[in-house]
Amino acid sequence: MKVTVENKKGLNKDLKIFIDKETMNSYMDEKYEEIKGTINLKGFRPGKVPKEILKRQFGKAVFGEVLDKVLKETSTKALEENKIKPAGQPKLDLKTYGEDKELEYVLSVTELPKLEIKSLENIKFDEYKVKIDDSETDKRIKEMAKNQPNFKEVSSDTKAKEGDLVSLDYKATVDGKEFKGSEGKNTQLTLGKDLFLKGFDKQLIGVKKDDDKVVEATLPENFPEKELVNKKAQFNCKILSVKQAQEVKIDDDFAKNLGAKDLKDLKILIYKQINDEYKNSLDQLSKNQILKQIEKVKVEEVPENLIEEEIKILSQGMPEEEVKKNKKSFEEKAKTRIKTGLILNEFGEQNQIKVSEQEIQAEVQKQLRMMPGQEKMVMDFYQKNPSALASLRGTVYEEKILNLIKEKGKANKKEITKEEAEKILKEAHKHDHDHDHGHEKEKKETKKKPKEKTIKEKKLATKKPKSKPEVKKIKKVSKK
User: Is the pTM for the entire model greater than 0.85?
Assistant: First the structure.
């Protein structure tokens, strides 16, 4: 194989690749040898069909397979040997080809720019540690206790009031007739919450244990029996018990009910929970600082084809007129995003960062925990959408890169109070909001314009070539 590299313009290169006739014939012979044992032709024993017969019958198909294989192998090898990383898909232009002929083609490729990333090892950022006061932990535990009331039955002559838990059996009728679902046993209602039927539990205020009470309520719009919707029903209720909320004692038993070993262990867990809530948000601020500095790293030239693709993503769903109007703004934003992706990718490659299947599964599990009750839906989504899983891999990959940059960088460590943390986060949120507001005209929408992906949500910009380059055109072959 002979390869000649020609610089066309900037990052654009043409690779002229030549494979002599003898090499092509050896590929063909190898393929005929491979298929010989699988072909059954009348008059010939298996594996004994002469090559000339095979050529006459299967030559075209064999050559097609061989050509496909040679193009794939030689184009990949040519790029690797010349240390060219393609930005997007190379284009392939066949010049000379055919059975018993040499192969000559041109591979047109846009190369990724050479990047200097040493400066990332000295990157500066703020690293926050939030000092959580013990009173904050106690306050959170008291809130948890308040949300887990302990109901205790009261004496039979005590009347139910708002906030009490009333247990009852009921039978309901509409116009004197029973209906499907008209009977309930040991139904429990916390008076004042109005969670059963609108206005139902308020009518139970003042009832006592063993009382009989008739309650009237309108059946709602979503009632299963459609012919009864918005009709008034009468509920004949038998009061089984009245319970009042008791103050929950915050002790070891309370802690054990919440999954802790004891109260001391619960306090440690809640302290960590509060700390993590702030840490995650503040860590994201640190990463945003890093990304802002990466945006300032000088890159001589950004591949035009990647910029064009990014503009398509940014302007997706927008009217053509609006895209033209904001072309320059889109180009600048696309350049910034592509450049950031290329730099992060280069850092990841140089530091041999990989994403394992276990890390992908851990990320999926994390998402499952964030969506309780919808686990099956989330799992089905990832199983049916390989591109979503690939995007998730990109997110994990970038997270690992940013974490390593943080490790190698220079952290300005700050210990702050909870109040200071809230102030910092509030200001950061306001800054982001103002920045978005400033681009309002640019974001003028079609109604369903999708939300712009952040660098974390999209795959990094560098794209590896597919197994086979795209064939741009096939010219008439010169007869040699």
Answer: no
